[in-house]
Design goal:
This protein is about 45% helix and about 10% strand. The protein is an alpha/beta fold. Helix 2 packs across helix 3 and helix 3 crosses helix 4.
Length: about 240
């Protein structure tokens, strides 16, 4: 698919990136992490070993329905789900058990290195733009090889709500001291990334090679594209904002 524009691209000073399923395929990473966590729970907390991965996924969905504010904070959503499940299973100190399992999950969730094409793309863009990461997830950028590419990395927590809320976009605007119109946010999700950027007054680029689909669009992006390397061609023609 070629690049398709829906709005005129304004001068860009900062490019912010979603991480999961934008700069790397997060699906197999999460599948492995969930399997590792399931085995860990069976070993460490046998009272809950009869609950499989699908059970914990359903639990997270129900927790999210009761607490919509957790839908954009994957860390707190997982922690709350574990705590409630362990309490129901009769595990002593469910809060401590949940923290231990979360820490184990976080290790496996970041136990990979981003592939070279994405790193090369970031290096090319970093020569002309300032870069930021805005992610609802809990991947650790330093561990996966991305830490040196971003001027600022923003994730939910410490009072910041996840996308599509504007909190993290506002943090990026404050960090660089620029208006949203000079920020281009790149992400795969039509709701959290594209709608979130739009609400914050930022431009947006919808990466169609991730998990999002057209039916999820609430607002049109500035442009959409299907291969990360297309960003270099598009932004090479754009006028950088001073």
């Amino acid at each position: 698919m070629t690049v398709q524009f829906y709005r005129k691209l304004q001068p860009v000073s900062v490019i912010s990136f979603d991480l999961d399923d934008t700069l790397y395929d997060n699906v197999p990473i999460m599948q492995t992490a969930e399997q590792q966590v399931q085995q860990f729970i069976a070993r460490q907390y046998p009272r809950a070993r009869h609950w499989d991965i699908e059970h914990w996924q359903r639990r997270r969905f129900l927790v999210m329905q009761r607490n919509p504010e957790l839908s954009s904070d994957m860390t707190q959503l997982r922690l709350t789900t574990l705590r409630e499940g362990f309490s129901e299973a009769g595990i002593a100190d469910p809060g401590q058990a949940a923290e231990e399992v979360l820490e184990f999950f976080r290790f496996h969730r970041s136990n990979f290195i981003v592939e070279e094409p994405s790193l090369r793309l970031l290096q090319q863009l970093k020569s002309h733009y300032r870069l930021a990461a805005i992610s609802n997830g809990n991947v650790e950028c330093d561990k996966i090889g991305l830490g040196d590419y971003f001027d600022v990395i923003v994730q939910p927590g410490a009072g910041l709500r996840g996308k599509p809320f504007g909190d993290m976009f506002e943090r990026v605007k404050d960090h660089f001291q620029i208006p949203g119109q000079h920020i281009l946010h790149v992400g795969d999700h039509p709701y959290s990334d594209i709608l979130g950027a739009h609400r914050a007054g930022c431009q947006s680029a919808w990466f169609r090679g991730g998990l999002g689909h057209t039916g999820q669009l609430r607002v049109l992006p500035t442009f959409c594209f299907s291969q990360l390397q297309q960003l270099v061609a598009v932004l090479g023609k754009a006028e950088p904002s001073s």
